[in-house]
Amino acid sequence: MKRIIVFFFFLVQLNSSFCQDSLSLSGKEQNTDDSLKLINSPTLEFKAQDSVLNQAFSYQGVPYKIGGMSQQGMDCSGLICKSFGALNLKLPHSSGELSKLGNYVEADSLQVGDLIFFKGRSMNTPSVGHVAMVSKLSNGFIYIIHATNSKGVIEEILQKNSYFMDRWLFNKRIIE
User: 46-173: what fold?
Assistant: First the structure.
């Protein structure tokens, strides 16, 4: 009975509006929301990453718009904010600020839902200027979903895009 109540609570949390009353993560704050820990429980049939990815893919094809966070236009950090909003997480709308969250992950340990950070347009600066999310790992390829200036929200194979391969800085895991 306790598991049913916990599962029901989890479903209610997922269906609530993530734009209001969301859990905010910034800097070094730790998440104390038990529902996120429950997501990876073996009794549940889906993972937090599934909810995040489903939300991200709901924006596939949306055009790029700087500062955008809607179906009318989306930027890279807006896509991440809206995607993690499926878990009632309110993340900063800035790739630089997002890069301060979570734990570093090596490329060979990437998982679906991890974030990859890139330099911006200038190759001469080490600062973060773009963020993408790992959407799939298959046959040695890393698929990412992100909002690009030229194509809007797309999924692509990272290793087949030399622009982003040359700008790849590091990876972070926001949820365990």
Answer: endopeptidase fold (from Nostoc punctiforme) (3.90.1720)
Q: How far is CA 57 from CA 42, 86, 143, 147, 155, in A?
A: 25, 12, 13, 11, 8
Could you tell me the residue ranges of all domains in the chain? 46-173
Q: What tokens appear for 21 in the block? A: 């009353």
Half-sphere exposure of 62 (CA within 13 A, CB side): 24
pLDDT tens-digit profile of 73-124? 999 999 999 999 999 999 999 999 999 999 999 999 999 999 999 999 888 8
- The predicted model scores a pTM of 0.75
Q: What is the pLDDT of residue 176?
A: 78
10 vs 51: CA distance, rounded Å: 12
Rounded to whole angstroms, how far apart are CA atoms 44 and 58?
23
Helix (H, G, I), strand (E, B) or coil at 145: strand
Beta bridge partners of 145: 133, 155
Given a cut of 60, whether residue 29 has pLDDT beyond it is: no
